[in-house]
Amino acid sequence: MAFGWIDEQAELRARAGLVRTLRPRPADSPLLDLASNDYLGLAHHPEVTEGAARAARTWGGGATGSRLVTGTTELHAELERELADFCGFEAALVFSSGYAANLAAVTALAPHGSLIVSDAGNHASLIDGCRLARGTTQVVAHAEPDAARKALATHEGTAIAVSDTVFSVDGDAAPLAALAEACRAHGAGLVVDDAHGLGVLGDGGRGAPQATGLAGADDVVATVTLSKSLGSQGGAVLGPARVVDHLVNAARTFIFDTGLAPAAAGAALSALRLLRREPERAARARTVAGELHARLTAAGLEAVRPDAAVVSVRAPSPEDAVRWAARCRAAGLAVGCFRPPSVPDGISRLRLTARADLTAQQIERAVRLIGETRP
């Protein structure tokens, strides 16, 4: 029977406690939200939603085509200029998602015969980029620049190292400066995914590359998402202009994908301008993360110290993590639930988002409910 194997897979997932389901949320959810990636609380900000509405009224509901045909508007070009300027890079190229941006950066910059050195904790989009690239991938120990250095030393020719700047599972930061040093010692490029750094790290939220002095370097490329701190949707690749020109001509997820919807571009641009005016939002997100961690550990929970805005709390098992998250939801708190295969180390977690707009009372309530519902 066609697709008969799916039933067997479904049974195996159920036995392992790994079944995932969609849960549509209402527009006015009563839950205290510590599950989304809206780090700066901008997704519902009036300026951001008006930016989306204005762009839709002006440019229409969709981009109408690929970026190289009709899908590039003046709005897309404006967003790219301001993103590059804000983050400190020479140029930017906007994609329909951060996932597409990562696939583009890795596949287009790792041709046949090249080596890709990939951190074991990288996001699935970087992993898929490695799988699709024509180069050879070597996975190295998590956040170990010496491991990357040793891998690069085994290869003569074109090479890149690929890493998240802030890892999405535990919220720990990559040792970017040491990783860049390892790459430069072997003439390799560095490609970093700053999805969880933009809007949180760096001067006024300019991102991890800016915070470590790597922004604008001719051997560094960064990808970002517009769907987290900027409260919109889409992604971008930032780097030297010649790299961006190469992506325009070689990146399949750019050439063959419909352009980012104008409403998303308008929302992201409005959020970016708001962040310029209110840089304190970035520091507030980090402060909230620190408060969550301190309170959770004081309550006897095993929480990982955050380097940005992600706070994770270890759970005994996948089944316990699911039940724990469900009990939190029933008590009025939405939290993330990370289980295999989303976690590379096999340890299940509750994943909390430290939003800049959370109040002291909301932080206290969240910690109390997590403690009361623990397995």
Your description of this structure?
The protein has 14 helices and 11 strands. Helix 8 links the parallel strand 6 and strand 7. By secondary structure, it is of the alpha/beta class. It is globular. The strands form 2 sheets. A 7-stranded mixed sheet has the order 2-8-7-6-5-3-4, sandwiched between helices. A 4-stranded mixed sheet has the order 1-10-11-9. Helix 2 packs antiparallel against helix 11.
Q: How is this structure best summarized?
A:
The chain is α/β, with parallel strands linked by helices.
Observed structural traits:
375 residues, alpha/beta, 42% helix
Strand content: 5-15%
What is the end-to-end distance? 41 Å
Elements, N to C (H/E):
HEHHEHEHEHEHEHEEHHHHEHEEH
DSSP summary: helix tally: 14
Helical residue percent? 40-55%
- Regarding quaternary structure, what we see is single chain
- Count of strand segments: 11
Average of per-residue pLDDT values = 96
Spatial ordering of strands, largest sheet: 2-8-7-6-5-3-4
> Which segments are poorly predicted (pLDDT under 50) over 5 or more consecutive residues?
none
Structural class: alpha/beta
Biggest sheet character: 7 strands, mixed
Radius of gyration (Å): 21 Å
What is the general shape?
globular
